[in-house]
Amino acid sequence: MKARDRGKKNPQILRKNKRRSISRQTIVAPEYRRLRWLMGTITILGITAVVIFYPLPSLIRWQSSFLMRCFFIVLLCGAFCLYRILRGPSAPDRIVAIDILGILIVGFCAILGIPTGRTWYIDIGIAWALQSFIGTIALAKYIEGRNFDE
Amino acid sequence: MNNIMGMIFIVVGLVFDFFGCLGLVRLPDVYNRLQASTKCVTFGTCSILFGAFLMLGITAAGIKTLFCIIFLVLTAPVSAHALARGAHISGVKLWKKSVVDRYKEDKRSNQ
Hints:
Strand content of chain B: under 5%
Number of domains of chain B: 1
Order of helices and strands of chain A: HHHHHH
Distance between the termini of chain A: 26 Å
Distance between the termini of chain B: 60 Å
Structural class of chain B: mainly alpha
Strand content of chain A: under 5%
Number of helices of chain B: 4
Oligomer: heterodimer
Helix content of chain A: over 70%
Shape of chain A: flat
Number of strands of chain B: 0
Order of helices and strands of chain B: HHHH
């Protein structure tokens, strides 16, 4: 009997959980919201300018520095996706970010295959696209199966 | 000539990729992020692959990039639609300022 009672969902506990989930979202005063937005914009613009104009010193001497800069911009986009995976408020956010990261890696492999002359990187890209598609479909089905509010 | 055209295509693709990922970081809602990022990043990656095809020429690797473009164009929208449906059914709420929710209305009218 006790185990059954534990299994039943206590309405008070549910209410507490709901409150916690609401308070987890950062509630910011409207005066600071514009300041936060500006700070985020300046940070992103600064990182982008650094990546485009002063890329890291190249460890590999490639034929042209052009493709290396492209390479670093794709890495920056991957860093944005990782940020969304770390700080997504819900599960679908993270799955969207994983899907986008999978598509980005295909382009990454294509760029990597040109200057190094190793064309099997493109094979890796095709296989990665297939795996990413199947994984995203499976995760979407998994989300659909459980209902939070009904 | 082929090299320069390939570089132009790669730059266009990088711009689209960058703005798609910017939307993934900055927009407020799951659906907004999905709509901004999926289309942009799919087109950007296809453009990068086409640039790689122009730079590699008609070789085995170049034709593989064309197959990769076809595969991406066919599969990326499917996974995006599945994700949007799953997110809506799992109860992720829309943004406060979003205007209309057709899927909910359709559900109600079907019941």
